[in-house]
Give the backbone structure.
Amino acid sequence: QVQLIESGGGLVQAGGSLRLSCAASGRTFSNYAMGWFRQAPGKEREFAAAISWGGGSTYYADSVKGRFTISRDNAKNTVYLQMNSLKPEDTAVYYCAGYRTSIYYSSSSPNYWGQGTQVTVSS
């Protein structure tokens, strides 16, 4: 059993920044590839970013590339999403995701999910 807990969401004006954190825990927890998804009102959940177990490879959706940065600290079992130059269209519930593989594959679906944290960007 793996538990993912997000934090850091909130309200910010357009052009501002937020950093989301996702802490992972579990009795037999192992480090896997991790990612972030988001779901805006009335829209499907979409991929935002992912990072390999070692942290050497990162992946981003075109909509966030250049503005968001994903990183991880395996010693702390924590993954981060630094969000800069936020836009109103970034408003969504952001979900932390974990994969059973150490390498991220775009065709795969997450095996573990956090509860989500709300990010609201005002104009």
